[in-house]
Amino acid sequence: MSDLHAPTAPAGTAGAGGHPGDARRVLLDVQDLAVSFGGIKAVAGLSFSVHEGEIVSVIGPNGAGKTSAFNCISGFYRPNAGSVVFDGESVTRKKPSHITKRGMARTFQNVRLFRDMSVLENVKTGMHSHLGQNVFDAMLHTPRYTRSERQCTEDARGWLDFVGFRADDELLVTQLPYGEQRRVEIARALATQPKLLLLDEPGAGLNHSEKNELMELIRKIRDLGVSIVLIEHDMGLVMEISERVVVLNYGKEIADGTPAEVKANPVVIAAYLGEEEDE
Ligand SMILES: Nc1ncnc2c1ncn2[C@@H]1O[C@H](COP(=O)(O)OP(=O)(O)OP(=O)(O)O)[C@@H](O)[C@H]1O
Asked: Under CATH, what is the fold of the domain 26-103+194-278?
C-alpha cells in the first residue's frame, strides 16, 4: 500500500482559533469565513483551526452552517468573505481538485460514489490526482500504464482492507449495504493520500457496533498522521473520539474546547435547548 506522509515542516505555535497551549503545527486555519444564500447567512464569520494529528468535531443544531462551512473549506462553495489557509497555502476559493491535490480529502453527508462503477473502480478514482499516467499511456496501454494500473489496483485493495471493507470489491457500489458504502467512500478519500480528512456525518445511518468500528477506524487514520475534522450529531461518538469540539450556531462558533469544556458550557446548552424547543 502507498505510504501516507504527514507534513514534515517544523512545528510552529497554535494559530488564532486554536486551543491555547497546543504547540502542534496548525494545518488548517479558517478565519472569518462567510457564505450567504439569498438572505440566509449560512456561515457568518467562522474562525477555527486544526493542528497536525488532531481529531476535531464540529457540532451544532440543524441548519447551524456545518456542511456549508465544509463546502467552503473544501472548495465546493465560494465563500463571500474570510480565508482558508491549508498547510501554509491560501486555498480560499480554489477548486476542489486543487485542494484535494494539496492534501485535503472529504466525504459527504449523503454518500457520493460513482453508482455505475465497482467498489474497486471507485477507490481507484481517488488515486488519479497523483498518478504519473497520461492520456497516451492509457490509449496505447504502454508498459508504464500497465505497471501503474497494477500498482493502483493493489493500493486500492490495500485501502479497502485498511477501512475494514469485507464484501466483494467487484460489486457495483449500489449493491452494498449503506455501512459498506460509507467505508468505500472513506477508502476513496484515503487513496488521495490526504493530510486532512473531513468527514460529514460519518456515523449517520450506522448501528451501534458499526459506530464503534467507525471510531476505531478514525483513530487508525489519525495514527497514520492524518488530521480529522468530523461533523457529527451523535454526541456519544463526538465526546468519545474528539480531542477538541467546535460548536456552531447561526454560522458562527459559539464554543471551542475539550469535550468536557463544551459539554459544561452554558451557551452550548442553551443553543441545544433552543433546538429542542423549536421541534
Ligand atoms: N446550496 C444552498 N442553497 C440555499 N441554502 C442553503 C444551501 N446550503 C445550505 N443552505 C442553508 O444554509 C443554512 C445552513 O445549512 P447547513 O446545511 O450548512 O447546516 P448544517 O449545520 O450542516 O445542518 P444539518 O445539521 O441539518 O446538516 C440552512 O438554512 C440551509 O438551508
From this structure: Rossmann fold (3.40.50)
